[in-house]
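Entry 14. Ran structure prediction on the chain below.
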Amino acid sequence: MEKLHIPVLLPEVMANLSPQPGEKYLDLTAGYGGHAKSILDVTLNYKDSVLVDRDDFAIKHLSAKFPPETTIMHEDFYGAVLQLIECGKTFDIILADFGVSSPQLDMKERGFSFKNDGPLDMRMDRKQALTAETIVNKYSERDLAEIFVRYGEEKPGRAKMLAREIVTHRPVKTTKELAELIASKSKYSHIHPATKIFQAIRIVVNDELGEIEKTLPLLPKLLDKNGRLGLITFHSLEDRLVKDFFKEASSHGEESELTLKTKKPIVAENQELVINPRARSAKLRVAVRN
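Output, structure tokens:
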């Protein structure tokens, strides 16, 4: 599993979050512990650090990888933030990587990727009821089209056409069926024609933007003075939420909760893209608690 997951923007994360020995660390999307290991190797403060993930596969991996005194929470990051605030916890470093992990994409039974044939699942938390299959086979043509426009940023005409094709060919049971259906009505470009549709469905299944939007305003409450907050996004919808939050939280002069450490998002260097192509859309933004 270690080889399957390469944490994105790791040198940039380390440089901009600048972990120090003894500091308290909160990872809201710990995944398979790539960022966490590098940071905790510096801080060595396991007992005051918290690793969060809603994926049971990730939780098992984290529990085996880190010392038992590390707090590991099987929870979505919004729920975790609420609990930590209620407990009065604060941290020197908070990191959230909002992307789908490589193992999730590569495990065909999870149904995240059109490159592997698997069930239409896409749940980050497998305890929840809503799956991609429900959306694809039960939602109305109009609702599908709206999802494709809003969360896949497809053009309205194309979104309507694809929604109509999906409804016409129901039931659609696998990722391969869905990807081939979309591809049959598409012209290939530099990205697979199913990319935006899969993104849109996945966002709805996991309420990804809703989770981010609810969580962002709460994060300063969990930061100690001079604490650093790093947020990694992978598409424009996520990045817009983070950018707007940082702008608002840093725009009140001496009353501002945060000061921006990165005026512009940090992106991967060519050297990283060679070994980790999935980093090509990653953007890191960092702010400091006043």
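Residues 114-206 form a domain with the DNA polymerase; domain 1 fold (CATH 1.10.150.170). Will compare against last week's run tomorrow.
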